[in-house]
Amino acid sequence: xxxxxxxxxxALALLLAARWIEGIEVRGWWAAVVAALILGLVNTFIRPIxxxxxxxxxxxxxxxxxxxxxGLLFYxxxxxxxxxxxxxxxxxxxxxxxxxVVSYVLNKLVDFx
Length: 113
Hints:
By secondary structure, the protein is mainly alpha-helical. The chain has one domain. The protein has helices at residues 2-20, 29-45, 47-53, 55-60, 65-80, 89-112, and strands at 24-26, 84-86. A two-stranded antiparallel ribbon has the order 1-2. The longest helix has 24 residues, at 89-112. It starts with a helix and ends with a helix.
C-alpha cells in the first residue's frame, strides 16, 4: 500500500515538472502515473548498471556525470510512455532534477507523518 502512495507522489512531481519546465509535457493524470511507474523501474534496474559502467567517468567529474545519466533515463522514459513527452536534453536534466527533489521532499514528509 505504501508504494502506491510513493507512486502517486512521483506522478505529482512529474506533473509539477511539466508545469514548471518548458519542454516537458504530460497529457493527463494516467500518463503521469504510468511515467512515474516506468521511471521508478528504470531507476531501480537500469540506473545502477549505468552508474557502474560509467564509474571512472563519474569519478573524474566528481559525480556530476550522474546528472547526465539521470537526464538520459528521463529522456528515454519520455520516448517510451505515451502521453509523456520530453523535448530536449536540457529539459530532461532539469526535469529529472526537479522530480528528484520534489519526490524526495514529499516522500520524507509522508514518512514523517
